[in-house]
Amino acid sequence: MKQSLAFAPAARAGTPTLRSPGATERQPGGPRSVFHVVRVDEPDVKQALQRLYRRYHDRVKTEISKYREQTCDRDVANDNDTAWALIGLVAFMNIAHDLELMSSRKREQLFSTMAYLVLNGAPN
To answer: Structural domain tally of the chain?
Structure first.
């Protein structure tokens, strides 16, 4: 599968790995923040964040569609809902990382497993 800003090869063969927009691996001792406080009652800020996440969602949804054209033969959630589910999972994984709730390895394993299930459907 072609790599993009949103997806890169994962440990499980053929399963994409989702990355947040602009995400990079944090170095030990580097800056961490669990929550960024943003006033979304300001129309300009709210509109900018809506555009950012809609573009991110569209990009993820496009990659899901490409992936499923090649591999999906089960009943699964539609690409739109799947994209939002993966984005939500990434948001949680970033919080888990910031709070040191699990190791990086465990986080990667959990995401790989959950992404595979969301993308391909659970076996019957």
So the answer is: 1
